[in-house]
Design brief:
Distance between the termini: 28 Å
Structural class: mainly alpha
Number of strands: 0
Mean pLDDT: 80
Strand content: under 5%
Low-confidence stretches: none
Largest sheet: none
Order of helices and strands: HHHH
Number of helices: 4
Length: about 170
């Protein structure tokens, strides 16, 4: 954005006449007979430099409008980048909260299934259930614990992603 602002300032300065002082001596004349007449030749050179912005006014205005439009475009791109980053961070904060709730529910489910394993073992010992039910309960509890681990992993990955989105990082 700073670059676009400086480009607009440079285009704005093109509207003003310029007078360059340099080490060369230039002779310019509209008529070849004045080439040998040094004061008139230098006067034509100076007149060309001073009148240049008046002669090229429409080209200078077009360049100014172009650089002004580019500055506005850079401003919109900057705003878009800020909004995108803000939305990304908000989405990740929401994801962290949702994953925390999901983790809590999976923890409750895992606890309930562990209690179910104890009940299935008691039923098996009292010959009220066969061992297949005990194995099925253990399998369900294992699946719930794996989902619990996956939920925690996704939650921690989201925390890392939000840290990176906010500009954190490591070497």
């Amino acid at each position: 954005m700073q670059s676009a602002k400086l480009n607009v300032e440079a285009a704005r300065k093109e509207f003003y006449p310029s007078l360059d002082i340099n080490a060369t001596l230039g002779l310019a004349a509209f008529n070849p007979t004045y080439l040998v007449n040094i004061p008139k030749s230098i006067a034509y050179n100076l007149a060309g430099e001073l009148a240049g912005p008046l002669i090229n006014k429409s080209a200078i205005q077009a360049q100014f409008k172009t650089t002004d439009a580019l500055q506005i475009q850079a401003l919109y791109e900057y705003d878009k980048t800020i909004l995108t980053a803000y939305l990304d961070v908000c989405n990740q904060i929401s994801a962290i909260k949702n994953l925390d709730q999901y983790y809590q529910l999976k923890a409750q489910e895992s606890k309930s299934l562990d209690e179910g394993i104890d009940i299935a073992n008691q039923l098996f010992r009292n010959m009220r259930a066969d061992y297949l039910e005990v194995l099925m309960n253990q399998r369900d509890a294992l699946d719930a614990k794996l989902e619990l681990i996956d939920a925690k992993k996704r939650q921690l990955n989201t925390v890392v992603n939000i840290y990176k989105s906010l500009g954190g990082g490591w070497k």
